[in-house]
């Protein structure tokens, strides 16, 4: 982007911000508390700044900003929900009050290492779809939006990636012990 283009984009953003900041803040404030509304308004305009070329001109800019604010609020809500679920899970399974036996820790670390090693041997696309589904706990619809495909396509990708991960774990375990453990991906084939 040239200096002139940057200056034009910055001026356009300033006009949009000046014209719609109060409406976006009010939109957020009607849905969440004051502090969250301030943060979500700022995040909404951060998205607008980053995607200034996508912000429509004229009267259609405000609905675009409302839609963006809606997504920002939803993201915060999902993040807060995941955080609460993690805290609840940690409370339900307190590790600080209970010390595992050394043998348990060694076995758990070995299993974790085996899974991570198997994951690293997968194709990057398989790794990403499994990380998004399992670690980030995104729905298949959300993953589809992120990857630019349908939720059904994500269902298939997750299933196939889980099968490949199972084969990687199976191959390594079979090689290491001479015994073939069984791993079935969710949904089976």
- CATH fold-level assignment of the largest domain: Rna Polymerase Sigma Factor, Chain: A
Regarding CATH, which class of the largest domain?
A: Mainly Alpha
What is the typical, i.e. mean, pLDDT? 82
Q: What is the architecture of the largest domain at the second tier of CATH? A: Orthogonal Bundle
- Spans of at least 5 consecutive residues with low confidence: 180-189
Q: Provide the succession of SSEs.
A: HHHHHHH
Main sheet summary: none
What does the radius of gyration come to? 23 Å
User: Between the first and last Cα atoms, what is the distance in angstroms?
Assistant: 49 Å
- The CATH superfamily of the largest domain appears as RNA polymerase sigma factor, region 2, helix turn helix motif
Give the overall shape, derived from the CA principal axes: elongated
How large a portion of the residues is in β-strands, by DSSP E?
under 5%
Total domains: 2
Which structural class matches the secondary elements?
mainly alpha
Helix content: over 70%
Quickly count the helices.
Answer: 7
Total strand segments: 0
